[in-house]
Amino acid sequence: MTLNLVRVRHYLKEFRWDKLFFEEMGWDHSSGELSVTVAKQDYTLRSLAQKRGVQIFECQPDAAGKVPEYDVRRKIEKAVAKSAHEHLIIFIDAAKSTQIWQWVARQPGQPIAYREYPFYPATQFGDSVIQKLELISFPLSEEEGLALTGAVFALRDAFDRDKVTKKFYDQFKKEHADFLKFIETPH
What are phi and psi for residue 41, nearest 5 degrees? Predict the structure, then answer.
């Protein structure tokens, strides 16, 4: 699904999750809140959207109005996983100057891997986040055949940078080898 980049950038910068997830990306409405206490601080996570059981949450800032620190974000995620195993959390600050998109890779037999992607709306265009969002956008034509595993695999493909980096590097090696053969072959 191809996203309208102008609208998506605007929605990201304005924290307009309703427009972003429903109108642009084909996610379904979700409502409700989840409260989590970490280090004697209460955090409210608002359910933004869902697709076949995969939840997207926005985590409100800490008492100082800031995005929680990394170790606190990890603890928040662990608490969220008890209620929604497959999820994506967008941590925000009160000034709406920072978004941290967090997804956790859970592979059997491997340690949990936290993947975080910061976005600063005042100074960035959001291209790295938009590339990920494109991979978790679902056109109406795919709706009927989409299951939980399809939504989870889309998230994994979008947010698991090790997999993306490896795929890029493997393709680069192949093209580099082909290029070397080409320049070494007499013409």
Answer: -115, 130
Q: Work out the average pLDDT over 107-133.
A: 89
Whether residue 107 contacts residue 152, with contact meaning beta carbons closer than 8 Å, is answered with no
Segment (H or E) for 56: strand 54-59
Q: In angstroms, what CA-CA distances link 11 with 3, 20, 100, 162?
A: 12, 6, 15, 27
pLDDT, residue 26, reads: 79
Cβ atoms of residues 24 and 8 within 8 Å: yes
State the DSSP code for 4: -
- CB atoms near residue 15 (< 10 Å): 14
Residue 109 has pLDDT above 70, yes or no: yes
Q: Which positions ≥6 away from 47 have C-beta within 8 Å?
A: 30, 31, 32, 33, 34, 55, 56, 57
The Cα–Cα gap between 107 and 167 comes to: 18
Decide if 98 contacts 116 (C-beta within 8 A). Answer: no
Per residue in 26-76, pLDDT tens? 788 898 999 999 999 999 999 998 887 788 899 999 999 999 999 999 999
